[in-house]
Amino acid sequence: MMKALKTSWRPLxxxxxxxxxxxxGPAQAALFEDDEARRAILDLRSKLEQQxxxxxxxxxxxxxxxRRSGEDNGQLRRSLLDxxxxxxxxRGEIAAMRGQNxxxxxxxxxxxxxxxxITAGVEERLRKFEPSKVSLDGREFTxxxxxxxxxxxxxxxxxxxxxxxxxxxxxxxxxxxPQSGYRGTALFWLGNAQYANRDYKGAIANFRALLTxxxxxxxxxxxxxxxxxxxxxxxxxxxxxxxxxxxTRSYPQSEAASAARERLAKK
Length: 267
Prior knowledge:
By secondary structure, this protein is mainly alpha-helical. The chain is built from 10 helices and 2 strands; from the N terminus they run αααββααααααα. The chain has helices at about 1-25, 25-30, 35-125, 145-160, 165-175, 185-195, 200-215, 220-235, 235-250, 255-265; strands at about 130-135, 140-145.
């Protein structure tokens, strides 16, 4: 910019020098009239003023352009800074949202596990009251949980060898559950407990009850063999023989029938 100003001032300096030369030389000054000299000076001054004004205007425009450029750069920097701040704020919000989502996912997972545990607990409690399918001595039937629990408790007493308690427990069972699918097997073990307690007549009655109720029961052949044993204990050998013969006729393929045939062969 300063170089341009220097260049524009060179013709003006030449004019000033020329004017000074004209004023200095008396011989040359005589060539002009006073009015012409004044007009030349005024014209020169006007041109110098115009040039100055033009130069000032150019300088002002350049200064304005520089200021606007600086303002634009400053505005751009501020805009970039604001944008960067917004980006950082968004990153923070995204990180917070990601953390919230992870926490929410963990919460949902915990709730689902809790729901599964509750559901499993409820189902387990319901199973304690809902009937279930039972397979025993070749027979399938449906029994209430309490029914199964009481039967297994009675059988556990018998297996411990506490035959008086087992007799009482099985006797209560058949009274409490007269229609139970366990009834035939319960009568069989009740008869065995009575046999162990030397209640032979009671044992015969319950073995016969089993045969009457379920002649096709898996324990039926053993029940007949046990009746024969009770009759022998009661000294009813004729009755025992008839029972053994009944066993071989009714259940010829059973292991109990094989034992009955051996006994009959010895008599």
